[in-house]
Amino acid sequence: MLHQHLPQQRALPEQLKAKVSSLMHTRANKKLLQGQISSESGKVVLLKDLSNIHQKQKLNIGANSLEGTVKQLKATYGEFMAMMMHGVKLFAKL
Length: 94
Hints:
The chain is mainly alpha-helical. The chain has helices at about 5-10, 15-25, 30-40, 45-60, 65-75, 80-94.
């Protein structure tokens, strides 16, 4: 009972981590999600665990990927970003 709250015992399988991340991305209620994941896995799940899983997933998407960053900037800023990238290429040639 006492050892169930240790981080090693609370570790979730990758399948549940992916589910948590996708549900957190849709801004699901953390308390309800905590109860659901806890009942599915049979493990103690803290709200901090859910937040950490979601944050880690956000950081891993496009991590160290210049192409991913450029795609995200183009999606956000559109033509302005395309003009900036063209300017960077011209500057790099100088």
